[in-house]
Amino acid sequence: MSRTAKVATTAGAFVAAGVVATLLNGRQRHQRRLRRGEDVEFGSVHSDPVQVTATDGVLLNAEIDEAERKTPTVVFVHGWVESIDVWHYQRLALRGKVRMVFVDLRSHGESGRSYLDNSSIPHLADDLRTVISTLVPRGPIVLVGHSMGGMAIMELAAAEPKQFGRRVKGVVLIATSSGKLMRSSPALRYLIPFLRVASPVLDWGRTFNSYSIVRRWGLGPNAQERHVDMTNELILKSPTHVLMDFYPNFVSLDLTSGLEVMGKATTVVVGGTADLITPIKHSRRLAEAIPGAKLVALDDVGHMVMFEEHEKVTEVIEDVLEGLT
User: Fold this and answer.
1) How far apart are CA 91 and CA 96, in angstroms?
2) Which residue of 33, 158, 214, 251 pairs with 258 in a disulfide if CB–CB is 3.0 to 4.6 A?
3) pLDDT of the residue at 18
4) pTM, entire model
5) Burial class (CB in 10 A: 0-12, 13-18, 19+), 303
6) Which residue segment(s) compose the domain that 18 sits in?
7) What is the pLDDT of residues 206-242, one digit of tens each?
8) Partners of 294 in the β-ladder
9) What is the largest CA-CA distance in the chain?
């Protein structure tokens, strides 16, 4: 057999193996989805989309759930490689009780793409400012942010300090950090060097055994299979460029300048003791740095707090709302 033929045969075997692995993974994902036993299918909770144009022209996808109670408005900001769907349980629990605004961050969900040079935390904070001015032009606001979404809120506090206490009356920061993240996050320390040598083939390769990787790094040791599967489904919808374009934010992250002003709003920090991405000490540090902030530490819970302890997260939001009335 010629060298060319051998190469072709080897390549063909590799492709065939990849196709088989992809099919098996697809079947496993389908079976796990069937086992969820959902009353409301994950990813199906939506309202009519609204487009908001960011200051640099990126089109942001947002949705509004109206309610008889018009104020305050709760604005939800998701994290890295997530989308509006991450608020599945909170949205179902609070629908009709309070006005809610959900936004897909740039390059995430149904929003338009950004690139490396416009995928910074300040860009996200500016997007949040634009969403608020467009969709919540008046009245009190409660901001709820997970992970990178919480970072956008902290950056907004530094950029718009007068808004906190005046319009922003409440803040819920979930599994997030104000800095020094690369020193203590084993998940990010593992991921960042890998991304530096990554290629577009990751879009295909990420589906291989992604469930077990997500379970290991994203959730706590006692997480339900449905919550791991929901997280896996959510992350796999984000293309690899989202990983590549946003990861530099976490290398030299420092959002401490906005923390003191956040004390003008009722602030609750929620973190899981088994979080490997934003370890619980980051939540403790935030609660200590934000004047008057309350810490809610959830035992054996990982990064995806909104799934694993969805009732508790909803309760925290409801308590903040009740305290404003």
Assistant:
1) 9
2) 158
3) 39
4) 0.86
5) buried
6) 1-35
7) 556 678 888 888 999 999 999 999 999 998 888 888 9
8) 268
9) 80
